[in-house]
Amino acid sequence: MGELRPLGQDLTRESRALAEALRELFQGLEVSVRRYAARRQRDPGTFSRYLNGTRLPPWVVIMDLFTDLAEHRGTTATAATIDLLRDLHGSAVAAGPPKHAAEIIEQQLADADRDSRRSSVRGDVIEDALLDRVTRIADLEVRLNHMEATLVAERERAGRLLSAHSHASQLLEERDALRQEVARLESQLQAAQEQRAAADARCDLLERQLEAVERPAALAQALPEPLPKVLVVDDQPDNLMAMTAVLETLDQELVTVTSGREALKALLHHDDFAVIIMDVQMPEMDGYETAAHIKRRPRNRDVPIIFLTAMGIDPEHTARGYAAGAVDYISKPFDPWALRAKVAVFTEIHLERRVGHPG
Question: With contact defined as beta carbons under 8 Å apart, do 96 and 15 qualify?
C-alpha cells in the first residue's frame, strides 16, 4: 500500500484536524490512494489533496469513506464518530478561504449552463419536428382543397364520389391527428424555452455570486436603510445558530423559525424579506411543501427561496425544488462564504427592485 503524502504546509488548525481524522479513516481501508480513487471513480490527485489537508472534501466524500470502511470491517461507524467528523468538516469549511465557496458556485454554474444547453438543443429538435408537421398539414390542406373541387365536379358519379369521400375522410383524420401533435409539440417547445430561460437566469445569478465571493469586500458594503430582512427556516437549533453567526456580519435583520408553519406565520407578520433560507428536511411540513404554500400567496410569491439540504444536490432534488419555487440550493454542511455571497446578491437584487418600484 502506497504511503500518504505528508500533511500540507501552513494548514489552519481546523484543516489539519480534519485531514488527520480522514487519514485515520482511510488507513483503515488498507488500500492505496490510487486504487481507492479508481474504485470510487475519483481523481487520485484530488483525493490525495483531501487527505493531506490542502483541499476540503465535499461531505459526500467523507460519507463514502464511512460506507467503505464499514463494508471492509463488517461494522458500521457510530453516530458519535460521524458527528465528530461532521463537526470537524464544518469547522474546516468555516475557517477555509473563499476559494472553496467559489468552487461550489462554479459547479452550480456549470450545472445551470448544461441545463441551458440541453434545453436549447431539445427546443431545436422540437422546432424541427413542428416544422415537419406544419408542412405536412399544409400539404394535406392542399390535397383536401383539390379533392373538394373534384367532388363538386364529379357529384353525379356516385361510385367515384363514394371513393373520393372515403379518401377525404382519411385525409381529414390524418390532418386532425397532426394538428393534435402540433399542439403537443408547441406545449413541449414552450416548456423547453421556459427551462432554458430559467437556467440562463440561474447562470446570471450564479455569476453575480461568484463575483461577490471573488470580491469579499463587496459582502460587507454599507446597505441603505431600511435593511431588508432574511427569513431562516430550520428545525435544528444548532443550524439556526450557525447560520445566524455567518449572516449577522451582513447587518441584516434575521428572522429565524423552526418549522414550515412558523415560516408562513412570519411571512404574515413581517414585510420586506430579501430572501428565505429553508431546510428541505423538516417534520410535519417539509421545505418543498412550505415553498409551495409561500408561492401560492400573492404577497410572498416573488421572495426568492434558497433550499438548504443535506441530501446532496442531484437533478431529482433540484428539479423538485425548482418546481416548488426555489431559485437556489446550498448543501449541508454549508460553506459560510457561499451562503453569505448568495444572501448578499439576493439582497442587492431586492434593493434594486425596491428602488425601481418604490412603495
Answer: yes
Map residue 308 onto helix, strand or coil.
strand
Domains of the chain, CATH where assigned: 13-96 (1.10.260), 100-214 (1.10.287), 218-356 (3.40.50.2300)
pLDDT digit string, tens, across residues 249-286: 787 889 999 999 999 999 988 878 999 999 988 988 99
DSSP 305: E
Alpha-carbon distance 73 to 314, whole Å?
Answer: 29
Query: How many Cβ atoms are within 10 Å of 122's Cβ, its own excluded?
Result: 17
Please, are residues 94 and 14 in contact by the beta-carbon 8 Å criterion?
yes
Helix, strand, or coil (residue 175): helix
Left, alpha or beta for 8 (phi > 0: left; psi -120 to 50: alpha)? beta
Q: How far apart are CA 180 and CA 75, in angstroms?
A: 59
C-alpha cell at 126: 422540437
pLDDT tens profile 153-206: 666 554 444 455 667 788 888 888 888 999 999 999 999 999 899 899 999 999
CA–CA separation, 114 vs 106, rounded Å? 12
What is the predicted pLDDT for the residue at 32?
92
Distance CA 330, CA 277 (A): 9
- Cα-only R_g, the chain: 29
d(CA 138, CA 132): 10
Q: In which order are the strands placed within the sheet that holds 229-233?
A: 253-257, 229-233, 273-279, 305-309, 328-331
Cis amide prior to 216 (ω within 30 degrees): no
What end-to-end distance do the CA atoms of the chain give, in Å?
Answer: 68
Phi, psi (deg, nearest 5) at residue 329: -135, 150
Cα 89 from Cα 17, distance rounded (Å): 9
- What's the CA gap between 184 and 178, in Å, rounded? 10
Cis peptide before 224 (omega within 30 of 0): no
Q: What phi and psi values does residue 87 have, to the nearest 5 degrees?
A: -65, -45
